[in-house]
Amino acid sequence: MNLAMVNALLTWNRRRHVARHAERGFTLVEILVVITIIALIMGLVGPRVLNFLGESKVKAAKIQIESLASALDLYFLDNGQYPSSSEGLGALLQRPGSAAGWGGPYVKGNEVPNDPWGRKYVYRSPGQHGRYDIVSFGADGQEGGTGAAADIISSAR
């Protein structure tokens, strides 16, 4: 065997070894390390994202309530009184029998929006805090609560 053949054989063996090494892929330990890192990141970031989501729903409810309060003020200017509790917020869309000067609809769309948690706003006239109250019971849908579950109330004084 001459030297050229030996060198060719050694070169071929090195190429074959490098090709086999490149085809191995990831080991189970490497995959487990990556999954652990991803889990740690999600454990730190996840609660913060959920907290921001809860806060944004509270802000959206406050904005919707203020919009409904503005519509009720327009209703009051046209009719000299706010709708009764029995007429409810529906009086902003359809003329109730007691509204002689009704100039609505006072709300865009074909219905009064639900709160960000999908429940109807509670309307009371006269209210417990003023001439009327518009209330969302928050995330839990129950009266009272704290944080995202706290009641959101707007009223006319």
Compute the CA-based radius of gyration. Answer: 33 Å
Beta-strand content: 5-15%
> Which strand order does the major sheet show?
1-2-3
- How many domains? The number is 1
Can you give a write-up of this model?
The model has no long low-confidence stretch (mean pLDDT 79). The radius of gyration is 33 Å and the shape is rod-shaped. Strand 1 and strand 2 form a beta hairpin. It is mainly alpha-helical and 157 residues long. It has a 3-stranded antiparallel beta sheet, with helices on one face. It contains 2 helices and 3 strands, in the order ααβββ. It starts with a helix and ends with a strand. It has a single domain, classed as Glycoprotein, Type 4 Pilin (2-Layer Sandwich).
Summed up, what is this model?
With 157 residues, this protein is mostly helical.
Key words describing this protein structure:
single chain, 157 residues, mainly alpha, three-stranded antiparallel β-sheet, 2 helices, 46% helix, rod-shaped
How are the elements arranged and paired?
Elements: H1 3-22, H2 28-79, E1 122-124, E2 132-136, E3 152-156
Antiparallel strand pairs: 1-2, 2-3
